Amino acid sequence: MKLAVRTIISLMLALAPGWAGAQGADPSDDKTVTFAPGDPEMTAATTQALTGLDEFLALAEAPPAGTERFKLKVKVRDGNVTEHFWVIPFRRTETGFVGILANQPEEVRNVVLGQNIEFTRNDVSDWGYTRDGRQVGSFTVCVMFKRMPKEEADYMRGKYGFDC
């Protein structure tokens, strides 16, 4: 089974000031970082995210001043392939959540960019938002930075306010 986690374009979409902000994204920046199922660092990052999920969801429902761009990362399965995507915006429903898929699938074929998707809490693998221009959460992204070329990771950290 292959597990693909989106990085660069996902971040650009997730962090842009609005949906239209992604239009200026350079398609050559669209990268995928692949992790083996059970990767210890990615598992730890997901565990950290899920531990704080209830607090994040409460904050997203009543965002304090200086916070914005609340997003969830969710896994989508297509047969034996799993790919993770940012969903922005999202909202709770009676059975889970619904939101807009914020990146172009590369591995799975059962969803498309911009599609409204329904998912449950069990599908969530990360969360994030910005507070005063700095990233909060996005734990899996910090793991991805370790697997990216240093120049790319440093650029993304600086441009989007990551402290990892």
What would your notes on this structure say?
This protein has 164 residues and is an alpha+beta fold. The protein has five helices and eight strands, in the order βαβααββββββαα. It has helices spanning 8-15, 40-51, 53-61, 139-147, 150-160; strands at residues 2-6, 32-35, 67-78, 81-92, 97-101, 116-119, 124-131, 134-137. Strands 1, 2, 3, 4, 5, 6, 7 and 8 form an eight-stranded mixed β-sheet that branches. Strand 4 (81-92) and strand 5 (97-101) form a beta hairpin. Helix 4 (139-147) packs antiparallel against helix 5 (150-160). The chain is globular and about 40 Å long.
CA-based gyration radius: 15 Å
Alpha carbon gap, first and last residue: 29 Å
- The percentage helix is 25-40%
Overall strand count:
8
Order of helices and strands: EHEHHEEEEEEHH
Average of pLDDT: 84
Cα shape: globular
Low-confidence stretches: 5-30
Helix count, DSSP H or I runs of 4 or more residues: 5
Secondary-structure-derived class: alpha+beta
Strand content: 25-35%
The largest sheet, given as strand count, sense and whether it forms a barrel, is: 8 strands, mixed
